[in-house]
Amino acid sequence: MTEIVPTSWLVYCRPGFENDALAEMQHHAKQLGVPCESSLGEGWVTLMRLDGEPINDLHRQAAFHKLIFARQSLAALPALTLSRDDRVSAIIKQIKASGWSFEDIWHETPDTNDGKALAGLIKALTKPLQNTLKKRGALRRKAGARRLHIFWTDGDKVQLGMSFPDNRSELVNGIRRLRSPSRAPSRSTLKLEEAWHEFIPRDQWDERLADTMQAADLGAAPGGWTWQLVQRGMYVYAIDNGPMDSELMRTGQIDHLKEDGFIWEPPQRLDWLVCDIVDKPVRVLAMVERWLTRKWCTEAIFNLKLPMKKRWEEVSRCLASLETALSKANVSAEIACRHLYHDREEVTVHVRLKH
């Protein structure tokens, strides 16, 4: 049997953002001088090397934690079309030809109704496939924590991908599903909760989201993000001309100031700045840059609303502008950006000043 190598880079993304994920992937491929051609479907994108060489270097260099629009990042084999009478054999054959071994198997689908409809088929095939791969030694206990992803785009179409520890999402389909708190004033509360999960290691929450801290929420009303801060025990300056949730205000942990979030200045240095104001990215960015260059806060999470087209280019410009502003002010910081599951037409940016 002819040996095959992973020549494709496969990422999952939010449906409707395929061109943005593709633009980001092409940027990384161009930086490394890797010739590629692209293909995409609803909720996924691939780049395939034109020279037939393995994609591993590009996949490794474009580290998952640096990607913005990708929910998952895989080194992938050529897509397969399966026989509806025997879907397992073709998958087994390709895995054997690849020489791959792995410790786990995840069956995944695009984040679409058609993808969700494949759940029954996948469930029926999971055990037979798993048992066969165990017998052949491909699925085994010690395989460097590698994981096989079987990405189903249809009942007879799959693409096999491999993920590696420290360069992947540890969430099925790359999606963090959170339960909406019934007492929170708005569903936007999940954006901030997901951002904390994404950007702050769970074992650092007690230190970096401590109940002794003070925070500002710019554009706070009715209080979805303020609610998260209050739940962590923080004292919050809620800046918004609109009304705050009355039950939230009864906590006694909030100072609601009916002022313009773009011009308000804190009375002292705060631990956190959060902001989900709906406005042009350049205006939000100018405000956040003022906070960070003057060191009015230690950490910040804010959303940038995106245009309908060329979102990757806009985000790139914004992040470059932020890095330049901090550098000119001699402020050292860690910056991360991600299109989160609970985001829609925005990306979430996290900045942590280095002491």
TrEMBL record:
It is found in: Cytoplasm. Residues 8-74 form the RlmM ferredoxin-like domain. InterPro entries: RlmM_FDX (IPR040739), RlmM_THUMP-like (IPR048646), RNA_MeTrfase_FtsJ_dom (IPR002877), rRNA_MeTrfase_M (IPR011224), SAM-dependent_MTases_sf (IPR029063). One of its GO terms (molecular function) is S-adenosylmethionine-dependent methyltransferase activity. Residues 86-164 form the Ribosomal RNA large subunit methyltransferase M THUMP-like domain. Its EC number is 2.1.1.186. It catalyses: cytidine(2498) in 23S rRNA + S-adenosyl-L-methionine = 2'-O-methylcytidine(2498) in 23S rRNA + S-adenosyl-L-homocysteine + H(+). The active site is at residue 305. Pfam families: FtsJ, RlmM_FDX, RLMM_N. S-adenosyl-L-methionine binds at residues 188, 221-224, 240, 260, 276. Residues 186-278 form the Ribosomal RNA methyltransferase FtsJ domain. GO terms for biological process: methylation; rRNA processing. Keywords: Cytoplasm, Methyltransferase, rRNA processing, S-adenosyl-L-methionine, Transferase. One of its GO terms (cellular component) is cytoplasm. Monomer. Catalyzes the 2'-O-methylation at nucleotide C2498 in 23S rRNA. Belongs to the class I-like SAM-binding methyltransferase superfamily. RNA methyltransferase RlmE family. RlmM subfamily. This is Ribosomal RNA large subunit methyltransferase M. It comes from Vreelandella arcis. The gene is rlmM.
